[in-house]
């Protein structure tokens, strides 16, 4: 539910500049273009570009994933059709009873079914029983559908978010990173059950429903049972270590596998590595936001690596072979005679590794370095060359607009 609440105010298609009907290939193409244009390495100190880069990365993390995109589309469709704030037509208008979060309702229930709302906003839609979702709120207020037949306790543990910082080359090649987390973890004494022997009996106060119902006027109210904590069952011999909850607070170490090619700001999800759920229920998820440090040699453009290599005038004029670094071992690159300053040479397959097994390219830009100090023999040779160049008719400013 927390992730869907975050989606409510996001327009991921708008961030990528594509329509909601765009193909996966178009989304990927748009992401690469925007990521390249707004990458912090290409825009040092530009906070606007940095924020744009982060939004683009977050958008692609959702709509670039088939499963997440489907969930996101369904969620936004519900909002657009009045699934959240647009209930005024079904729930009433002026004179209705106020609900948390701005929801309102008239005194009649004939226009809607609370059970349907629980189907939409309950655990099946990504929420959790008792997590404050709309189904729990309305089920409690109207004493229908929301609590009957299911426990009031959370059905899983809480999700956890953390952030790590890795080197550029680690992000490009992939790595593992140790993370220490402090939070609820399964009790080792009772193995998460909350009981010494595992014996439980149905709560006599709520009859196993997990709710206590109270009738008040036109509506029935429901609240979690305090005797069983909303579980519907009472532990006969609570574990002394965790007090019957099945969890204890402790620090644990997790090794996070960072996939090759991760970009700055991307989130990596580790299912089941969040906080432990109470009394043996599943754990939540861990979301790791990856921050990538700039590299002194390489920058990145999509799956391609970019590098600027210093060369001499002679190497460009006469041609030759230069050695350039890669993410692995150095490679030799041929420079054709007469190569202009600033030209980019492409080395196939030496960029970022893709999931498909292929890799981007290495883009090598040559940049002339002019010597500051030359000895007498070098100066003499250079003057001889300059004269020969002039005698050949070469004019470096020929065709230049500023030469007029």
From TrEMBL:
Residues in CR-type zinc fingers run 174-251
Q: What does this protein's record comment on cofactor binding? A: Binds 2 Zn(2+) ions per monomer.
Cofactor(s) this protein cannot do without: Zn(2+)
The record's keywords, sorted A to Z, are: Chaperone, Cytoplasm, DNA replication, Metal-binding, Repeat, Stress response, Zinc, Zinc-finger
Q: Which InterPro entries match?
A: DnaJ, DnaJ_C, DnaJ_domain, HSP40/DnaJ_pept-bd, HSP_DnaJ_Cys-rich_dom, HSP_DnaJ_Cys-rich_dom_sf, J_dom_sf
Please tell me whether the keyword Calcium is annotated for this protein: no
Q: Which residues form the J domain?
A: 11-76
- Kindly list any coiled-coil regions of this protein: none
**RNA-binding among the record's keywords?**
no
Residues spanning the signal sequence: none
From which domain of life does this come? Answer: Bacteria
Which coarse location class applies to the principal site listed for this UniProt protein? cytoplasm
- Every copy of the CR-type domain together lies at 174-251
Q: Provide the residue positions that the database annotates as binding Zn(2+) 2.
A: 203, 206, 225, 228
* One Pfam family, short name: DnaJ_C
Q: Which residues bind Zn(2+) 1?
A: 187, 190, 239, 242
Compartment(s) of residence: Cytoplasm
Note the segments forming the CXXCXGXG motif repeats: 187-194, 203-210, 225-232, 239-246
Annotated domain remarks: The J domain is necessary and sufficient to stimulate DnaK ATPase activity. Zinc center 1 plays an important role in the autonomous, DnaK-independent chaperone activity of DnaJ. Zinc center 2 is essential for interaction with DnaK and for DnaJ activity.
Which protein family is it in?
A: Belongs to the DnaJ family.
Q: What does the protein in this record do? A: Participates actively in the response to hyperosmotic and heat shock by preventing the aggregation of stress-denatured proteins and by disaggregating proteins, also in an autonomous, DnaK-independent fashion. Unfolded proteins bind initially to DnaJ; upon interaction with the DnaJ-bound protein, DnaK hydrolyzes its bound ATP, resulting in the formation of a stable complex. GrpE releases ADP from DnaK; ATP binding to DnaK triggers the release of the substrate protein, thus completing the reaction cycle.
SUBUNIT field: Homodimer.
Q: Which PANTHER family match?
A: CHAPERONE PROTEIN DNAJ 1, DNAJ HOMOLOG 1, MITOCHONDRIAL-RELATED
Can you say what this protein is called? Chaperone protein DnaJ
Q: Which organism is it from?
A: Corynebacterium stercoris
């Amino acid at each position: 539910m927390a992730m869907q609440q975050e989606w409510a105010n996001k327009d991921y298609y708008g961030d990528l500049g594509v329509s909601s009907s765009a193909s996966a290939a178009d989304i990927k193409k748009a992401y690469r273009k925007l990521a390249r244009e707004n990458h912090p390495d290409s825009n040092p100190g530009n906070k606007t570009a940095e924020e744009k880069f982060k939004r683009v990365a977050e958008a692609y993390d959702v709509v670039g994933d088939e499963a997440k995109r489907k969930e996101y589309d369904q969620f936004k469709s519900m909002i657009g059709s009045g699934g959240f704030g647009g209930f005024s037509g079904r729930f009433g208008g002026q004179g209705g009873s106020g609900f948390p979060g701005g929801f309102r309702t008239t005194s009649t229930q004939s226009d809607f079914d609370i059970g349907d709302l629980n189907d939409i906003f309950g655990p099946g839609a990504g929420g959790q029983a008792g997590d404050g979702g709309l189904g729990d709120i309305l089920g409690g207020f109207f004493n229908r559908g929301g609590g009957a037949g299911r426990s009031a306790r959370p059905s899983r543990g809480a999700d956890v978010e953390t952030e790590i910082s890795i080197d550029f080359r680690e992000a490009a090649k992939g790595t593992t990173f140790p993370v220490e987390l402090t939070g609820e973890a399964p009790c080792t004494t009772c193995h998460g059950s909350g009981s010494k022997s595992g014996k439980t009996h149905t709560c006599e106060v709520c009859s196993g429903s997990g709710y206590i119902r109270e009738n008040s006027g036109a509506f029935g109210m429901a609240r979690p049972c305090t005797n069983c904590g909303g579980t519907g069952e009472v532990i006969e011999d609570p574990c002394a270590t965790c007090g019957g909850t099945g969890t204890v607070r402790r620090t644990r170490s997790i090794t996070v596998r960072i996939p090759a090619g991760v970009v700055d700001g991307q989130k990596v999800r580790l299912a089941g590595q969040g906080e432990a759920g109470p009394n043996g229920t599943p754990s939540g998820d861990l979301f790791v936001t990856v921050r990538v440090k700039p590299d002194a040699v390489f920058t990145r453009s999509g799956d391609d690596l970019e590098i600027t290599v210093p060369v001499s005038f002679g190497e460009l004029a006469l041609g030759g072979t230069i050695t350039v670094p890669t993410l692995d071992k150095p490679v030799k690159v041929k420079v054709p005679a007469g190569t202009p300053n600033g030209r980019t040479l492409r080395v196939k397959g030496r960029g970022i590794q893709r999931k498909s097994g292929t890799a981007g390219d290495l883009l090598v830009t040559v940049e002339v370095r002019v010597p500051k100090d030359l000895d007498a023999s070098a100066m003499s040779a250079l003057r001889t060359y300059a004269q020969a160049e002039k005698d050949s008719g070469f004019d470096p400013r020929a065709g230049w607009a500023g030469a007029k």
